[in-house]
Amino acid sequence: MQRFGIGGWMMVLATVASLAGCVFPSDDGSQTEEENAALNSCGSGRHRCGRACASNKSVTSCGPSCIACPVPANAVATCNGTVCDFACSVGFHACGGTCVSNTSTATCGNTCNACVAPANGVATCNGTACGIACEPGFTLSGGNCI
């Protein structure tokens, strides 16, 4: 960039080469991720939250709204850059907005169905499907303990 001054006036001349790397918003007002990152001065993969820069995937300041992601019990919060979600810990699976034990007879398998116990038996869950265990002295026959 070259500066030329005449009296109290200063004129700045820029060559095309010196504009390389500068960011100008698109004519339609939209911006690429790179343009947005340069304009908010946080860099690619980051966004401004107040006066600080945060990772787009930070669970403490998720996405452009900068919200903290809620964490249900037995889970880890996640952020995909826009919205919060969660991943259940090993031995647990998602049922609605919670993480429940894989062996819970109240919320068995991916469908989260309750297991029903027949007379003289108890319901079981192996993590994917309901089952039945008969009380001592009874035998399983056709879903019943006789």
Attribute tags:
146 residues; two-stranded antiparallel sheet; 2 domains; mainly beta
Structure description:
This protein has 146 residues and is mainly beta. The chain has two domains: 2-88, no CATH class; 102-145. 5% of the residues lie in helices and 34% in strands. It has one helix and twelve strands. The protein has one helix at residues 33-39, and strands at residues 2-6, 9-13, 46-49, 52-55, 75-79, 84-88, 92-95, 98-101, 121-125, 130-134, 140-141, 144-145. The strands form six sheets. A two-stranded antiparallel ribbon has the order 1-2. Strands 3-4 form a two-stranded antiparallel sheet. A hairpin with a 2-residue loop joins β11 (140-141) and β12 (144-145). The longest helix is centred in the N-terminal third of the chain and has 7 residues, at 33-39. The chain is rod-shaped.
- Give the strand content: 25-35%
Structural class: mainly beta
Global Rg: 30 Å
Topology pattern, helix = H, strand = E = EEHEEEEEEEEEE
Q: What percent of residues adopt helix (DSSP H or I)?
A: under 10%
Give the distance, in angstroms, between the N- and C-terminal Cα atoms. 93 Å
Q: Report the strand count.
A: 12
Q: Based on CA inertia axes, which overall geometry fits?
A: rod-shaped
Mean pLDDT: 81
Q: Low-confidence parts, pLDDT < 50 over ≥5 residues? A: 1-5, 8-24
Largest beta-sheet details: 2 strands, antiparallel
The count of domains is 2
Taking strands numbered 1, 2, ... along the chain, how are they ordered across the largest sheet?
1-2
Work out the helix count: 1
